[in-house]
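Subject — a protein and its fold

Tokens — whole-number codes for backbone shape
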Amino acid sequence: MKEETPFNPSVIPDLALPPTESKVVKLETAAMPRKTKPRRKSGKATPRRRALDPKQQAIRLARKVSRKAKTSWKRIKGGINSRLAHLDREKLKQVLLACGIAAAAVAAICILVKLTPLIIAMLAVLGLGVVIQTWDRLRPMRPA
């Protein structure tokens, strides 16, 4: 009986084992078709754009940005209108009033936060003035 290695399906044959014979791969150059580059179109077939001066390029870019801003603003307005279109007038008034009150509260809080250091400084100066005035009143009068 011949001893053979048992078949193991997890190992692909001839992959991990070193080859017993050196294999030489010959490439047939005649059998492979040569790739040819497609002909380039003449310059007249493709339109050429003139190079603009920097000022014209800046104007063109500004127009493009402005158009995008207008379209996005239109989309925002359209979305708001579509969401609020199904509400009746009274409910819409209540919603807008609530939004206005919320915006006013947020603005007041932001202003208060920005002015907090100034308010604290003013209170400190006024408090110091009150303390000095009170100290002068409490100090006994010296005979002159």
